[in-house]
Design a protein that fits this description.
148 residues, mainly alpha, Hypothetical Protein Yqey, Chain: A, domain1, Arc Repressor Mutant, subunit A, globular
Length: 148
């Protein structure tokens, strides 16, 4: 079962359960995937591309939560947090701090990085290895800290 099919099945189940909040979040995600399909001009969107869409939507929710909390709008932040919780069901399990550090060290060794000038190459290798299981901002900070 592809990621898109799984999302569609979850949408149907939430509609039958009359869970309006979950249904709304899943409809939004299905719509975003539909736009990505149109943009890429492929009928069934590959799982890697669908996962990228889910990650982008999750990042939007995280950013919105931070902005709403900064603006004192707790009720809107709570709504975004509920949507984020639904989106996280479709994301792969995130790497732990130890696993992430080992992955970055392996990427540094693989690229042969010796200074901060090599950060771009290390980031490219680390992101390929992480494959969506780590946030880019966290990864960047760790690469910056570990490079001499």
């Amino acid at each position: 079962m592809t990621l898109t099919e799984k999302i569609t099945a979850e949408l149907k189940a939430s509609m039958l359960a009359k869970d309006a909040d979950r249904t709304g979040a899943l409809r939004m995600l299905k719509s975003a995937i539909g736009y990505a399909q149109i943009e890429k001009k492929v009928e069934p969107l590959p799982d890697a591309d669908a996962l990228t869409v889910v990650q982008k939507e999750a990042k939007k929710r995280r950013d919105a939560i931070a902005e709403f909390e900064r603006g004192g709008r707790a009720e809107l932040a709570a709504k975004e947090a509920a949507e984020l919780k639904v989106l996280e069901e479709f994301l792969p399990k995130q790497l732990s701090a130890e696993e992430l550090e080992a992955l970055v060290k392996a990427a540094i060794a693989e690229v042969g990085a010796t200074s901060k000038k090599d950060m771009g190459a290390v980031m490219k290798a680390a992101q390929a290895k992480a494959a969506g299981r780590a946030d880019g901002k966290t990864l960047s900070g760790l690469v910056n800290r570990l490079l001499p």
